[in-house]
């Protein structure tokens, strides 16, 4: 598959969602396009194949979709970062601020590989709040997080500011979420 694949053509843009004036970048259109989905996974594997990644941690829920085939291709464990209350075992929990409130994520404590390098994945990187909380969880559990991956990045929302010292890779970036910009 070509490195010149135009991922932007495969991302649905929805105006005025979830609020008037917002342009929503929807990755579900990637999932209905086997060529686009395969290209994303191939790019992940190509980029990380020599980065000494020991496991991949996926943020609920769309991060799961991209991380599972990546974990299989790399023959590494897949760790789930879930919304609070979804995991039955002994968990580590972390609260974080959302734009309009608070949220909490958790991870099975026994799933965190001690002293290992974990790649953290989600579909879209925006403010960095969820990813920052996930990094803290993995670090609390004894893992190292040196890399973060997202299909889409919205750097104008300054996600990198909440993730200092971590290498961040996205496949495509957009410079606004305003309709008409």
Task: Note down, in words, how this protein is organized.
The chain is of the alpha/beta class. Helix content is 24%, strand content 34%. The protein contains four helices and nine strands; from the N terminus they run ββααβαββββαββ. The protein has helices at 28-31, 34-48, 62-74, 129-140, and strands spanning 12-15, 23-26, 55-59, 78-83, 91-98, 101-108, 117-125, 144-153, 167-173. The strands form two sheets. The protein has a seven-stranded mixed β-sheet, sandwiched between helices. The chain has a two-stranded antiparallel sheet with strand order 1-2. Strand 3 (55-59), helix 3 (62-74) and strand 4 form a beta-alpha-beta unit. Helix 2 crosses helix 3 (62-74). It is globular, with a radius of gyration of 16 Å. The two termini are 31 Å apart. The model has no long low-confidence stretch (mean pLDDT 94).
Mean pLDDT: 94
| Major beta sheet summary | 7 strands, mixed
Instruction: Write down the Rg.
Output: 16 Å
What are the secondary-structure elements, in order, as H or E?
Answer: EEHHEHEEEEHEE
Termini separation: 31 Å
Short description:
This protein is α/β, with parallel strands linked by helices.
What keywords describe this structure?
two-stranded antiparallel sheet, 24% helix, 7-stranded mixed β-sheet, 181 residues
In terms of topology, how is this protein built?
Elements: E1 12-15, E2 23-26, H1 28-31, H2 34-48, E3 55-59, H3 62-74, E4 78-83, E5 91-98, E6 101-108, E7 117-125, H4 129-140, E8 144-153, E9 167-173
Parallel strand pairs: 3-4, 3-7, 7-8, 8-9
Antiparallel strand pairs: 1-2, 4-6, 5-6
Helix pairs in contact: 2-3
